[in-house]
C-alpha cells in the first residue's frame, strides 16, 4: 500500500516548502540526491515523476541561496552512501562551494580522488575510512592544521612534502600501508618540519635524528 508520504520520500530538505533553514545551520546534513528518472523507471516508481513539478531558473537560484554552503564554517558530511555516479557528482558540487569551511568531516564515503577540490580556509579535515591511495588525491588545503587519514590505502609517503608549506601540526596515518615503511616516523617528520604530532604521539627526540648512514650499507645490488 502506498503511504501519503511516498511522493516526498526522495525530496531534499530544500524541496520542502515553507521553511527557511539554510545549509550553514546544518552540521550533519544528508546531501544525497534522489534517484534519477531512469532509475525510478527501472524501480517501477515512475509515478513519482508526475508529482515532480518543473523547476524554473528562479527556483533553482532560490535553492542555491537556501543551501548557502559558502557560509558553512563547520560541516559533517560523513556516511553519505554515495553509491551512484550522480551522487558523487552532487557531493563534489557541494564541496566546491565550501569556500569558508574550517572544520570538515568526510568519513566513510568511498572517496578516491578530491584533487580538483580546494578548501582555502579548512584547518581541520577528517577523511578516515575512504579509498585514497596517495597524498596527491587529497583536496588543496593551504591552511590545514589537523589532518586525519586513518584507514585509507596510502602505500607510500610520496607527495607528503606538498604539505611542507602549510601550518600542519597534527597528522594521523594509522592503518595505512605506509605506516609499515622503515623509519616511518623519521621520514614523516623530516618531510614536515612543522609537524608536532603523528598518529596521536608527540614528536620525540628520536624522530628528529638524521637517517642512519649504515642503512645504505645494508643494501646490495643484484646484477
- Tell me what the CATH architecture is: Alpha-Beta Horseshoe
General shape: elongated
Strand order of the largest sheet: 1-2-3-4-5-6-7
CATH level 4 superfamily: Ribonuclease Inhibitor
SS elements, strand count: 7
Strand content: 5-15%
Could you name the CATH topology?
Leucine-rich repeat, LRR (right-handed beta-alpha superhelix)
Order of helices and strands: HHEHEEEEHEEH
What is the CATH top level name?
A: Alpha Beta
The radius of gyration computed from the alpha-carbon positions, rounded to a whole number of angstroms, is 22 Å
Count of individual domains? 1
Task: Describe the largest sheet.
Answer: 7 strands, mixed
- How large is the count of helical segments? 5
Mean pLDDT: 84
Terminal CA distance: 74 Å
Task: Find the structural class using helix and strand composition.
Answer: alpha/beta
Residue runs with pLDDT of under 50 for 5 or more positions: 213-217
The helix content, as a percent range, equals 10-25%
Keywords: Leucine-rich repeat, Repeat
Protein name: Protein tilB
InterPro entries: LRR_dom_sf
Amino acid at each position: 500500500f502506498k503511504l501519503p508520504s511516498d511522493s516526498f520520500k526522495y525530496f531534499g530538505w530544500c524541496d520542502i516548502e515553507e521553511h527557511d533553514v539554510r545549509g550553514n545551520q546544518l552540521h550533519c546534513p544528508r546531501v544525497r540526491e534522489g534517484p534519477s528518472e531512469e532509475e525510478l523507471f527501472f524501480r517501477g516508481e515512475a509515478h513519482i515523476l508526475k508529482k515532480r513539478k518543473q523547476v524554473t531558473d528562479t527556483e533553482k537560484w532560490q535553492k542555491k541561496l537556501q543551501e548557502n554552503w559558502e557560509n558553512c564554517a563547520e560541516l559533517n558530511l560523513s556516511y553519505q552512501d554515495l553509491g551512484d555516479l550522480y551522487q558523487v557528482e552532487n557531493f563534489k558540487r557541494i564541496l566546491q562551494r565550501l569556500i569558508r569551511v574550517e572544520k570538515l568531516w568526510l568519513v566513510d564515503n568511498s572517496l578516491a580522488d578530491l584533487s580538483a577540490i580546494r578548501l582555502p580556509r579548512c584547518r581541520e579535515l577528517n577523511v578516515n575510512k575512504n579509498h585514497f591511495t596517495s597524498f596527491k588525491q587529497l583536496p588543496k588545503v593551504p591552511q590545514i592544521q589537523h589532518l586525519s587519514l586513518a584507514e585509507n590505502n596510502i602505500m607510500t609517503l610520496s607527495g607528503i612534502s606538498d604539505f611542507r608549506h602549510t601550518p600542519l601540526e597534527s597528522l594521523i596515518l594509522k592503518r595505512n600501508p605506509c605506516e609499515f615503511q622503515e623509519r616511518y616516523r623519521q621520514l614523516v617528520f623530516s618531510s614536515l618540519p612543522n609537524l608536532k604530532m603523528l598518529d596521536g604521539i608527540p614528536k620525540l627526540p628520536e624522530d628528529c635524528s638524521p637517517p642512519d648512514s649504515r642503512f645504505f650499507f645494508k643494501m646490495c645490488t643484484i646484477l
